[in-house]
Specification:
This protein has about 350 residues and is α/β, with parallel strands linked by helices. Helix content is about 40%, strand content about 15%. The protein folds into two domains: about 190 residues, 3-Layer(aba) Sandwich (Isopropylmalate Dehydrogenase), CATH 3.40.718; about 130 residues, Isopropylmalate Dehydrogenase (3-Layer(aba) Sandwich), CATH 3.40.718.10. A twelve-stranded mixed beta sheet has the order 3-4-2-1-5-12-11-6-7-10-8-9, sandwiched between helices. α7 packs across α8.
Amino acid sequence: MTAPVLALTPGDPVGIGPEITAAVLHEYSGDASVHGIAVADASVMRRAVEVLGLDAEVRAVSSWDVPHGGPGVIDVFDIDELGDEHLEWGVVDARAGRAAVRAIEIATTAAMNQEIAGIVTGPINKEAIWQAGSEHLGHTEMLGALTGVTKQDTMFVVERSHVPGHHMHVFFATRHMSLRKALDAITVETQVDSIRRAHRALEVYGITDPRLATAAINPHGGENGAFGDEEIEILRPALEQVNADGLTVAGPIPADSVFHHGLSGRYDGILSQYHDQGHIAAKTFDFDGTISVTVGLPILRTSVDHGTAFDIAGKALADPGTMRSAFRAAIDYAPYVDGIRAEYLPR
């Protein structure tokens, strides 16, 4: 079996992205079952190796089918955006933003052309990419434009759990909006759509007969209307509809227990109703092991779920744990790339 090739975009070159990317690629350089290739300026990766004090060779490559370099070799698809120029660590810079965007464009094109199995993305700085001329709010919107899709969902994968080999997957009915607006945005129609999309995503990403549960909104699940009626008026009717259509979805289950059930192996996926409901549960339990998968793209994309940490960039203080988890997740999902493409490629 051919080892999957995964492109790692470090994100902003003056944040912690190059350091955590170099650390993970060095760690896996002796593993011939996968070939990770950084997508960045070679000079950026060499500087990261120097900061970390790694005994590693940074090898600039210009094709995706180059043979695995072996132990101690970090391959980088050299984008030649910055050349040998070293930008100041931890400072917003349009040149850094331009390099980050260019790396994402190159990696996404390679994935769309089926030259690589998928991409693993490091953190970008939104202000830097905006200064560079990008009109996108962030990674997700940029990747949507590059792949021709307009609807993507976030799927958190929590690496650790109470059951060996089991991962909890968290989906979000609403995302980046105020809590008040998020509650207004949840209707029977949107809840049904969110449930169906989450259930199908679990199938596409390799789970047969997935067990999905929805989180309640109100304390104690509303206590039959005493603490709010969203469960009665919205969540239960949505569940009745999808279950009548042939799915088997549990809920609404109070949020103070549903994530525990997920971590204990009762459910494969949990539909969180708003941003912090799912984020707090996942990251409190396993911050470094919680990674993001962008569902709805016709390519495999896993990502860290933290920022550029400008305050510690260039100081060898960054923990590569989340990048390691994102890389491992991409390895696990690589066998499903053809199905991901078939399901989500725009027609």
